[in-house]
Amino acid sequence: MSVRVRSPHARILGLGDYRPSRVVTNDELAETIDTSDTWIRSRTGIGSRHVAAPDDTVVSMAVEAGRKALAASRLSADSIDVVILATCSIPRAIPGGASMVAELLGCASPAAFDLNSACSGFCHGLEVAASLVCRGSARHVLVVGSERFTADWIDWEDRGVCVLFGDGAGAATVGPSSEPDIGPVVWGSDGSGARFIAVPDGDWAIRMDGRNVYRWAMTHVAPLARHVCDEAGVRPADLAAIVPHQANLRIVEAVARAVASHGAVVATDVVDTGNTSAASVPLALSRLVREQQVSSGDLVLLLAFGAGLSWAGQVVRMP
Amino acid sequence: MSTNDALILLRSVVREIAQVDIDGLARTTTFTELDIDSLTVVEITTAMEESLGAKIPADVFAELATIGELEEQVVRMAGGPEAAMSPST
Ligand SMILES: CC(C)(COP(=O)(O)OP(=O)(O)OC[C@H]1O[C@@H](n2cnc3c(N)ncnc32)[C@H](O)[C@@H]1OP(=O)(O)O)[C@@H](O)C(=O)NCCC(=O)NCCS
Fold first, then answer.
1. Which fold does the domain B3-85 belong to in CATH?
2. pLDDT tens by residue, B30-82
3. Is A234 helix (H, G, I), strand (E, B) or coil?
4. Residue A85 in contact with residue A144, Cβ under 8 Å?
5. Comparing C-alpha atoms, which of B80, B69, B72, B73 is closest to residue B56?
6. A280 close to A190: Cβ distance less than 8 angstroms
7. B41 phi and psi, to 5 degrees?
8. CATH value at residue A83
9. C-alpha span between A195 and A212 (Å, rounded)
């Protein structure tokens, strides 16, 4: 059987993001639910979050982020062979959103599929994209994480959950490379904790055992950050930035402590974005680029985790 | 580790992580009353679990609210991992 022309390696070519314009502060939430800015900040570090307008859908936000990623990588839409939409908050299972994202971007009938690994979806998607490029199944892949929790999946009376989440989308284009610019993935799952973050049977909103999620993240996920560096053969001192999933500032800080890289910038986008699940890592990464906290050629550690339970992380080189 | 040593260790861990002295407090004192948030409880229990080489079951952990309940789990863990996994009374 014949094989396609493979690429030895893959890399990120460009990044893009989309943040809904409406910002909701903790104080605004405290007007309608029994909470306070002090409580939310001390537990989570979150000060505000972006909330989607009615016409900001999972698909439309993914398109905006995708468009920017294409522009940043100077790729035309028709050069995209595969679109991967990482999301867990699309309102309907059928059809998936990826084909609509492709259509609206003007891609030429690429393979397109949704990937649901909740908050770790983008990092899963990045590994899938790199594998597709290296196997020759695609030359250019668009990976988008897009989430709209606030409209469909959040019970605004459940104060243990509603204060945590926000909406938005982040995207990356992935293509061939002569160097290993997307490091080996460290990923896995633990279904014994599936009930910790879930929409229970007969319910419609996300419910969370926040304590057990926090315990798992602190004890099992944070130590993986070091493992991601080891797998990539990268010393912590060589990292320019650390981008943990932006769920909670205390977890972000624990991941950074586990890496113990003194020079690296630590992404803290959670403070004014909240937890945007699959969009969180690319949103935080795009922001570091925009704020010129990282530059081309820099090594950045990504590590995402969430419902499943699931996790995935890798070291990437900035385009 | 003897259960007594484990309880002494617990006191010093709580003092170090939460800056609270639990010596002589009523066992029914809640973490909320001591201004210890549940995320700090995670840090305390993680430190104890690492020292004692055992784990507090997730269901028990989700409900842990008082100093007495925490001490009870520490005693179980000091008695070995199997004791720590048995349901709390
Ligand atoms: C969700 C989280 C902030 C809750 O903090 P916590 O200290 O564990 O809170 P608890 O659920 O133990 O609740 C403690 C008290 O605060 C109250 N509370 C919960 N949410 C509140 C809020 N937004 N404002 C004020 N009080 C709140 C609870 O009702 C409870 O009060 P009670 O004891 O009188 O019933 C925290 O567990 C967390 O961040 N976990 C990680 C979650 C996460 O990152 N998830 C995504 C992973 S992808």
1. 1.10.1200
2. 999 999 988 899 999 999 998 998 999 988 988 899 999 999 999 999 885 44
3. coil
4. yes
5. B73
6. no
7. -60, -40
8. 3.40.47.10
9. 10
User: Is A35 near ligand 1, meaning CB less than 6 Å away?
Assistant: yes
Distances (CA, A) of A100 to A95, A144, A286, B72: 9, 13, 23, 55
Q: Is the alpha carbon torsion for A22, A28, A30, A31 positive or negative?
A: negative
Angle at Cα A295 formed by Cα A291 and Cα A299, nearest 5°?
120
Per-residue model confidence (pLDDT) at position B81: 44
Taking the centre of ligand 1 as the mean of its atom positions, its distance from the CA of residue A210, in whole angstroms, is 6
| Res B86 pLDDT > 70 | no
Together in a domain, A116 and A218? no
In a domain, A219, yes or no: yes
Is residue A80 one of the residues assigned to a domain? Answer: yes
Report the gap between the CA of B47 and the closest CA in chain A (Å).
10
Q: What is the pLDDT of residue A5?
A: 86
The amino acid occupying position B27 is R
How does strand A310-317 pair with strand A186-189? antiparallel
Query: Is residue A111 within 8 Å of A138, Cβ to Cβ?
Result: yes
Ligand 1 centroid to Cα of residue A311, in Å, is 22
For residue A307, give its domain range. 186-317
**Cβ–Cβ below 8 Å for B42 and A43:** no
Amino acid letter at A151? A
Average pLDDT, stretch A230-251? 96
Starting at the earlier edge strand, list the strands of the sheet with A186-189. Answer: A186-189, A310-317, A299-306, A239-244, A265-266
Q: How far apart are CA B11 and CA A162, in angstroms?
A: 35
Axis crossing angle, helix A121-135 with helix A280-290, rounded to the nearest 10: 80
Q: What is the tens place of the pLDDT at every residue in A5-64?
A: 899 999 999 999 999 999 999 999 999 999 999 999 999 999 999 999 999 999 999 999
Q: Which residue has the tokens 């909320």?
A: B32
Is A275 noted as a catalytic residue in this protein?
yes
Tell me the per-residue pLDDT of A144-184, one tens digit each, with 9 for 90 and over: 999 999 989 999 999 999 999 999 999 999 999 999 999 99
Q: Is the CB of A250 under 6 A from ligand 1?
A: no
Domain identity same for A149 and A233: no
In chain A, helix, strand, coil percent, each to 5? 40, 25, 35
Higher-confidence residue of B24 and A71: namely A71
Owner of token pair 């393979």:
A111
| Distance from the A236 Cα atom to the nearest Cα atom in chain B, whole angstroms | 24
